[in-house]
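Task: complex structure prediction.
Instruction: return structure tokens for all chains below.
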Amino acid sequence: MATAETSLAGIAAKPIRRASFRRRETSAFYGFLSPWLLGFVVLTSVPLVLAFAMSFSNLTTVNLHTNLRYVGTDNYVRAYHDHEMWYSMQRTVILMVTLVPLWIVTQLALAMILDAGIRFLGLWRTIFYLAVVIPAVSKAFIWKAIADPDGGLVNRIVRVLGGRGDTDWLLDHPTGTLIALLVWGGAGVGMLIFLAGLKSIPQELYEVARIDGASAIRRFTSITLPLLTPVIMFQLVWGLVGAANVYVEPILLSSGLQQGLGSSVPVENVTFNLYALQRIFGDGDFGYGAAIAWIFVLFLLIVTALVFWSGRFWVFYGREQHGR
Amino acid sequence: MTKPPEDSGISRREFLRGAAGVAGSLAVGSLVGPELAAAIPRRRLAPTKVVFMGQELTKDLITEFEAAHPNISLEVLNWDSGRFQAMMAAGQPPDVWRTQAPLVPQWASRGQLLDLDPYFKASDLIHPADLTPANDYYRYKGGKIGVGPRYGMVKDWSPDETVWVRTDLFRRTGIDVPGPTDRWTYDDLWEIALKLKKKNPSLKWILDVANSYTWIDRHVMVQLASIGKSLYPKDFSRINLTKNPAAMEAFRYSFRYAQRKMALGPENPNKNGWSGPDFIAGKVAMTQYGYWFLGMHTGQAKASANSRLLTAPIWKGGKRLDPTITATGWVISGKTSNPDAAWTLFEWYMGGKPARDRAGIGWGVPAQLSLFDRLPTQTAVQRNAKKTLLHELPTSKVTLQFNPNLIGLEDNTAVASAYLKYIGTAAKGKLSFEDFMKKVEADTNRAIEVGKRG
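Output:
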């Protein structure tokens, strides 16, 4: 009887222990999450809301105590009529639609090279990932040296190939040079993510396909690509947001870092983000800059939503495997 | 019903002001990087703490100051334009900061600087009668620079239209080097530049025009002032450029150097962003810098032996004019909670031992006339520079009228920013000079509108 009682007590105690375990798990979860959550709220969410309020004011660097007032939607109306803002958005869209496909193709290609079991894998992995480790400033200076019109590597190669080799790449082709820098600099991280995706594809699928006589191209298009679509979706969203947020590299690639905030950035490389930055810290026009920044947020939300929506039609999440 | 006392609540205006202040400090941080949110300094904890932003106060100077003033501690922030702007917008500027002449009117006209007249009057270290005219850039009253209360002073200065030349590059090509006090014009300068370019085709930079264009409008303002013209109308409501033939001619003059790829700028860049190191290395033939550039020659034997400071060229039909266009100095915030402590730092740096030490190293002309006898004369280049300087001093007593509606910039004005933005395209011929100037005018007027609104 005593045994039965003990056993019953044990059974009764189990849910309590489970609940307590769950509570501990939940506490631990929020405990670990809280530093990020706190940072997100204090440094991102609250400022975003306050910036939204600021976008309805005429705040500048000098008028907080003298002439600050509510201006309604004036800043947004002004932005609507601001041709330069639309031009910077156009340049940003160009950057997004060229950079993201180039990133995805390059990253996937590098990942496939590493996944193919080549010799000196560690060495190649290091070489491919090296650009990620190099600070942005150094990367930009390396690229400036490569693109230098006088003694730069690119012009030397052009000369060897019989061309004139006197192109000023940073001035004559600023966006192309910027894209090249960004593709090189941003390939490493995406490569690792694609590599993880490739490693997760069951090898049996390839074996079966080989037995069925599928060519390498067929295996890539029918197995690799469909099973990588969730990773591609992630890379697409990540890439679009990353490309839209570019503003440091155009400044670093410009000729004079001492000449104000990106003053000497060629107009073709003035991205939407940089344009907002110049309005805020160049003109000291905080209210207007905040409005532009919020237009940028809305633009990114729409683009991201469209990408997620389009995922319904091309992203394969493997549900069929579970009989659905 | 009892009406609540007026000071019992917060008005809508005060609320908006407070929200904007917080937004200025936090929101901008989120938009352009969390480092800016962290950049807003905590409000002073100690009543005698002074926050300074600039690059003058070295560790040794800080130690020296704090030892001499144990009741005042310094918080020194390295100069960072974005951080400074965020602090200003948030209503928490540093107590004391470094600045240049064109930026002073934007703050002085909006009551953001401390009137230092009472402090100057009571000072044992700095006497207003001893101050050089360059200090007048820190006076402002009723829309005019150079009159009214003093809001700051220069740490040092120079007549900035003088030209440093590399005599070795001149001699190598058989071109005569003008004497240190020879009278010459901008046309002469152009002719010399053309000859240098022709005989030194491999020389990448012949003349640095206006510190790689960052001071382009200031140079043009001097050229225009010499013929009695201006870039701005009296109310500073716009910039007069495309319908101002004199201004167009002045800008066109500088633009010609860019077109021929003789200048230093976005169309023909160097790695440093300014011509100093390349001039010292003998890679730039001429650079239009003031006496202060003498400091760059310290310890550079070859450069010192081959460098000469020439007088300011004269603009077509104009009189000899060579004012400072930078007037780098310090101001004190009108919002400082410790004005006396802030002044103590200011007075010590501007009138104490640091000022005496600075006067003897060649990095600028002292702010006080009484320190002129400390100008260095040990080397030939120092003696030459002093000779040219003394020749220029009578022509330097002009105070340019910078536009108080141009706000928020660091070292270059909105005009220079716009110039830098389009010069690359224009110099390549992808934009006509007229269209280039139209764009500069439009960008500047947009910036002026911002200043007028706020």
